[in-house]
Amino acid sequence: QAKQEGRSTFRFFTPALRTHSSRTLRLRNDLRLALERGQLALVYQPQVRLADGKMLGVEALLRWQHPELGPISPAEFIPIAETCGLILPIGDWVLRQGLQQLQRWDAAGLGALTVAVNLSAVQFRDLRLAERIGQLLHESGLPAQRLEIELTESCAMINPQGSINTLEGLRQLQIPIAIDDFGTGYSSLSYLKRFKVGRLKIDQSFVRDLHLDPDDRAIVRAIIGLADHLGMRTVAEGVETAEQLAWLREHGCDEAQGYFFSRPLSPEAMQAWALARAPQQPAV
Ligand code: C2E
Ligand code: MG
Ligand code: MG
Ligand code: MG
Known about the structure:
alpha/beta, 14 helices, 18% strand, globular, binds ligand C2E, binds magnesium ion
């Protein structure tokens, strides 16, 4: 009896079933068409400098509006895209779309914002990454400094020596780099130094309970101190309250991003937000 149950259980968890639920299979199938059918879109979240409240740029975040299943989180569909060869075309689309949006905002007089784009581990492994991004930048006519690449700390640590080489290639193109979700990815300090990135994004898990948890405060203080000593800027992710913001400003965090300022917004809503926030021109 037990043996039979054991066997049927074993049979149920065949590798194919274990790794691919029917929803995953469906999403994988539908994702192929999502790009060409215009179901993917970028939303944008402002990044604000704490010293003076100036909006410096935006992070582009990908959205998939599935015609039947509704909105699908990138946390769900990016891993799927990574396993079926779709992440490279999707990644290129995100970069091109983000840069085009920047040009439209330039024309609308928003000031020279930067756009930060998230990169998947698969894109990052691509030996032609720098070449691809360089080409997309060239097409856009925008200077490299207007783009920023976000790479998660765990991504950078999959193959640290490879990361150093790839990051060097991007640096030669003068493309700014940020380490995303910093503090969750076990990077050693010696690698962090050799990555030579411009910004560290403090993971939102440390920001969330800042006013409740002394350990989180200690960690955030340590990250800010480390960044200062290594000549990097810090960006706090997931800032939702005025208390969090005040603490971060007081402790020398350079920039912040989160619902306190704005949720990720459509291009039109982001433009309206930025124009409403821009300091009034002094009367002549
Ligand atoms: P991430 O890059 O760390 O992005 C931050 C996530 O936190 C976003 O979730 C954002 O909407 C959310 N967030 C921002 N402010 C707050 C806040 O104040 N409170 C809380 N609770 N959350 C906040 P989202 O848009 O669902 O994206 C999830 C992840 O998916 C991203 O994490 C990123 O790793 C990945 N992702 C998004 N777009 C892309 C993309 O174009 N390419 C790749 N490869 N990954 C992407
Ligand atoms: Mg990010
Ligand atoms: Mg993050
Ligand atoms: Mg600092």
